[in-house]
Structures
1.
Amino acid sequence: MRIPTTLDAPILENVLFFRFEERDIMPFSLDLPKRLRVKGWKVKIQEKERLEPPRVTVWHGEEVWRIGLRDRRFLVPPGGGWKDIDQEVRTLIEDEDHWEQLRNAWDQRYPSNPVSSTEGNDHD
C-alpha cells in the first residue's frame, strides 16, 4: 500500500490564505439601481467601524453623509440632511426592508456593538 504524499496533491498557484478577523469584513452595500450607481451614489455599512455609533454611510461622488441606524439622524461630522440626498436614494434607504437589511448588516459585522444595544436611550 502506497502512502500519499504532498507531491500527490494538486499544485495551488497564486492562492492567498488569510486569517479571518472582524477587521477583514468587507463593507455591505445596499443594492442600488444602475442609474443611481452611474451617478455616483453608494450606500454602505463600512468596515473597521466597530467602536463607532451604528450607522450607514451614503456617498455621492466626494460628498459623504452618515445616518445613525438607531435614530435615523445625520451624524456630525459631516452633518447634512435628507435635503442633500437624491429622493430615490432616500426612498430606498428608508424602505423598511432595506432599513432592516442595513441594521442586520451592521449587527453581523459588529456583534459587540449591535444597533439595538442602546436603542431608545437617545433623547434630545
2.
Amino acid sequence: MSESVFDSHIHFGRFGSVYYTAAFVVRTLQHLGVGKWAIMSTSTFDPDFDYRRVEEEFRTILDIALDETYPIMIVRPEMLKSHPDLDRYFTIPYRAIKIHGYTDEWEPYGKPTRRVADIARERGLTLMFHTGGRERSDAGAYPSDSR
C-alpha cells in the first residue's frame, strides 16, 4: 500500500491584488508557532511567470527555515512543454509535485499527466492533484495510480 498525504498547505506570492513575500509568510508561520509547513508559490500562475522569481522566493524560505519547509512544485502544462523532464525546475529540493486541474487543462488520463506522474515516481516525490471546482478536477476523475 502506498503512502497517502493529507494536503494542508500555504502559499506565497500573489493572492488577488496583494503579493505575500516568502519572508513574510515564513515569519508569520514562525510567529504563530507552526513547526513545519508545506508551501508552494502562486507566482507559477502569474501571466508573466518567470521561474527565477519562484526560485528566489523558495531560496529565501529555505535560508530562513530549511528544516521546517516541505517545498511543493506546482507544474503548469507550459513548463512541461518547454522542459519535458522538468529538470530546469529542480533547483529547489522539492518534496512533491502538484498538478492543478482547476486552473489548467490536465486531462486525468492524458499523456502530460502521466509524464508528470512518471517524473514524480522517478524522483521519489509525492504527486498531488488539486481537486474540486470542476468536474474534470474532482478527486474521482484521477486514477489512483496516475497511470
3.
Amino acid sequence: MSDHPNSYSNFLPDQRWWEIDQERFRETDALYRIGEWAIFVAMWKVEDFNAGLVQRCPTCLTGESAIDATYQQPTFDRCPTCYGALYSGPHGGVKSLQIRPSIWQFGEKDLQWLRRGETEIQNATVTTTSDVRLWKRDYIIRGDGLRFGVNSVSGVHLSSGFGTQAHTQTATTYTYGIQKEHESSPVYSIAPDTNTSIQILNALYQRYLPNFSQYEYDDGPQGT
C-alpha cells in the first residue's frame, strides 16, 4: 500500500452535483433580477470545418483568386454570406444565436489611431448563464444596438467532492472580455439588424419571461 500525505480525513467524499446546481441557480437568478437581455452570436470555426459540420464559404472562398488559393483568405471584406467567418452553414457564418440575461461592466472609453482614422475604443466585460459558450471571434449584441467582439473567455467553475471534475458540468457562469466593433465590421450585417435587435431586447416590461424561440437557433456544438 502506498503512503499518502497526512490528511485530516481518511474519507474521500462523493461528488455532490446538487451543490453546483444550487449555486448555478442562485447566480442565474441574479442575472434575471438585475441584468439585461443580450444576443450571443457564435460563429463557425475551423474546428467545425475539420469535423465536417460546415463548408467553406461559397461566396468569398471560391478558390478562383491567388489569395484564396494560396492563403485560404477571403478576397473581400463584409461577406454577405459568412460575415467574415470564412465558413457557411444554414445561417451563413453564424453557428448559433441565443438571447440570455447578462450583466455588463464597462471600462473607460479611449481613442486609438487605426488605418481608417481615429477610432473610439470601448472595452467591457459581460457575465451570462453557463449554457452560453462563446469563443474568440464571436459576438455579443447589446440592447442599445452596439455590437461587441469577444476577446477573452473565463468561467466560474465549482468543485464538489473528490474525483475528476467534468469541465462542462461545473460552470455556473461565463464572463467575456469584449470590445466594441466599428460600424464597418461584418457583424453589423448579421440579422437581426440594429433597429430590430433594439426592439427585441427592449420589449415592454412583463412579469413573465418572453419567448425568444422565433429568433434563436443552434446549428452546431457550443464552445468551439
4.
Amino acid sequence: MVRESAEILQETIEDEQNLVPVRYYNVERGREENIISCQGDLITICNALADYGDMLNDYLEAEKEHMDFCSALGYERMRDRCRSISGRLQQKIGYDRQAAIEKCRQKQKKAPKADQGIGEDALVLMARRNAAAKQKAEAAKTQETKK
C-alpha cells in the first residue's frame, strides 16, 4: 500500500513537471489567455464532467415525469454539454476514459478478496492481536506443565 502511494505521488510530481498549457478566449476581457495545468488535472476534469453527466442522466431518468418541460430540457442540455466537453478534452489529451475504467475493473478483480483487517478500527485489531498472543502464551504454558 505504501508502495502504491509512493508511485502515485511520483506520478503526480512528474505530471506537475510536464505542465500543459490550456488556451481559452476570455469573453469579458476580450483576449486569449492561458492556464498552465498538468495532464493529471485535465484527466480529473474529464472524469468529473463525465461523472456529472452520468449523474444528471440518472436524475433525469428518475425524476423526468415530475418535471416541467423547461426544467427537463435544461437538465438534458447540461448533461449533453458535460459529455461533449469531456469528450473533446479526452480527444485532445489522448485519454480514453472507458479504457481507464476497464483497466481499473481488471485491477479490482486481481485484488485479494479478504481485506485482513484493512479499514478496521485500530482497537479491534489490537484486541485480536492481544487475544492471539494470550492464546499462544497459554498454549506454551500448558506445554511446559505437561513436561
